[in-house]
Write a structure and sequence with these properties.
The structure holds two protein chains of two kinds. By secondary structure, chain A is α/β, with parallel strands linked by helices. Chain A folds into four domains: 17-107, Glutaredoxin (3-Layer(aba) Sandwich), CATH 3.40.30; 140-342, NADH-ubiquinone oxidoreductase 51kDa subunit (Rossmann fold); 352-438, Ubiquitin-like (UB roll) (Roll), CATH 3.10.20; 441-525, de novo design (two linked rop proteins), CATH 1.20.1440. Chain A is 42% helix and 14% strand. In chain A, the strands form three sheets. Chain A has a five-stranded mixed sheet with strand order 2-1-3-4-5, covered by helices on one side. In chain A, strands 11-10-14-12-13 form a five-stranded mixed sheet. A four-stranded parallel sheet of chain A has the order 8-7-6-9, sandwiched between helices. By secondary structure, chain B is an alpha+beta fold. Chain B folds into two domains: 2-86, Arc Repressor Mutant, subunit A (Orthogonal Bundle), CATH 1.10.10; 98-178, Glutaredoxin, CATH 3.40.30.10. Chain B is 46% helix and 10% strand. Chain B contains eight helices and four strands. In chain B, strands 2-1-3-4 form a four-stranded mixed sheet, with helices on one face. In chain B, a hairpin with a 2-residue loop joins strand 3 (154-156) and strand 4. The relative contact order of chain B is 0.11. The chains are: A alpha/beta, B alpha+beta. Chains A and B meet through helix 2, strand 10, strand 14 and helix 18 of A and helix 3, helix 5, helix 6 and strand 4 of B.
Amino acid sequence: MILNDLISVKEKELAAQKKIVLRCCMAAGCMSSDSKGVKEQLEKAVAEAGLQNEVEVRGVGCMKLCCEGPLVAVDPKNELYIKVTAENAPSIVSTLKGGKASAEQTDPNAAFFKKQLSIVLANSGIVNPERIESYIAADGYLALHEVLNEMSPKDVVETMTKSGLRGRGGAGFPTGLKWGTVAKSPGAKKYVICNADEGDPGAFMDRSVLESDPHSVLEGMAIAAYAVGADQGYLYVRAEYPLAIARLQLAIKQAKQMSLLGAGIFESPFNFNVEIRIGAGAFVCGEETALMMSVEGKRGTPRPRPPFPAESGLFGCPTLLNNVETFANVPAIYRNGAEWFAGIGTEKSKGTKVFALAGKIKNTGLIEVPMGTPLRTIVEEMGGGAPDGGKIKAVQTGGPSGGCIPSQHLDTPVDYESLGKLGSIMGSGGMIVMDEGTRMVDVARFFMEFCMDESCGKCIPCRAGTVQMHNILDKILKRKATARDLAKLEELCDMVRNTSLCGLGQTAPNPTMSTLRFFRNEYEELLQPDTFGAGATHSQPATK
Amino acid sequence: MSDNLTAIEKPPVAPKPDAGTKHPSGDKRFKILEVHMKKLQFKQDALIEVLHKAQELFGYLEDDVLLFVAHHLKLPPSRVYGVATFYHFFTLKPQGQHTCVVCMGTACYVKGADKVVEAVQNQLKIKAGETTPDNKVSLLTARCIGACGIAPAVVYDGTVTPRQTPESTVEHINNWVKS
């Protein structure tokens, strides 16, 4: 494969494109509502109407508005049909001949779509994730060619640093700095790992990216491998995402057949192989050192850092570990330049962020917005507010490591620093909206139970602390706790946060601490009077 | 367990030269598992992949299977057992004919997944993680299956089903119990 081959694949694909394209969502969300049957019926109806030469029915990735699935879009008429069933799907085809569709439509220019800016999801819902040609037609693998032929690894790292991209896994570590550290680490063998162990409950961005555009992640990994000098990559995917695994396996096979992965990519001396490693349901494996243990086939327990993975990671070799969304950003940065990327977002948080909007909100699904977009825009304008006239009480970001942002802070811009100031974190992108009916102490207990179950048991503060904190939260909810218990809970939060070995324990108290900060009254309402009198440090507990 | 150990370590009674190590039980699934391990070059770091395959073949990981894997990957049985018990995905107990997995991710939880679990528990008189005495239905909960846009989601025998209610879930399960 050389550049001319790549261009000819692209031209052939574009020339074969039919005038009308019916895009049918084939991501996990819509497939659970029988989008496969919808696609079959569309194909059948096209054949019956004799339109095979003019109309293509294309299975695509996520079209973002998951709550209204299965979705079917008609190009170039710019129509979007929602809740399509196998029964009313043929009526969509009949509109091409002047008929009337019995399926519902939604406005593709609504705020939910118009306020989005797609970089990571640019191909999602457009290209066919099961055909590499479809990705190449959208300028896929062009960035990899340019990087391999026109840039030195040092230049590649420099461009990444200039772009200002920060890790999308949640912590927001500057990607360029990470790449530079691995590149400088001495060692003949280096590894690149993609963290696709999306364990946060309520987050599904990475699943959607892998299901909708797997090649962008592979291309991003290959560019990263060239920059740091690695020749072997691993994709660590959760076992809960069977469709994503199947699409990745297919994508790797296709890329190998076209020599876009493997030995001598684009006839350069650069070799890169990717293997998939399937997780087995352990939240702690999202932590980088635990993930590497799991890739090695061991129990996924974290270890102290340093040494950092950049120096001594997988099998003791220097290892670069980035999240799915981080890698998916990479090809676009090299296609359009670091300045273009750095021009989007805020001063310290560049580019866009994908969020999985879910919970008590009208429009649930995927959104990608520039960094710095106010939460209110996301939740009220794009999300359409709480359903059935309810009132939004809080927005939870960052999953079990994050916090709850109360409605009075909805004007906060979403970037790493602003969310951190409110005691929450950006996290990987799960955004759960809660309405007035949600009890915050219950939410805190829910997350603490999660952390308690998922604690790997290696360090004592996390193993024992989460159990104790959960017990106190349970006691509060059963109206059996006193102010003394609450004081103990706060003390434990502080202790576990400061003394745990890895991120799981260090952030486990976050949901409790943030709900205590903004919804303290809900805790105090549940407290019982302290029968011993002494030690009650807080205001008179309410007696109910 | 010690009986199983000796059973595996002893060579088969009459080994055919090309048959590899046949499992004394004569169960063909062991052969399939061995072929899979061979495909992975008996690499020790592929242990989790091998256990996935084993669970797919046998439905759960019994001691015999774990020892077989340990023996072929040249790993101590303690290490294989340790990995099998660490990860939630692996089960050491047999599952019922049907499995009902209720997603308990945050989005499903705030939309009432806890009530779905409660309804099923009351209906089947078992707790989450258990199987009915007649071995018909296993009730499990998942941390998050990433189907938050269509919450609350329930997985019936591997099929993700959107927007479930306590009533619809109980109805689905009753159909299983009746059949």
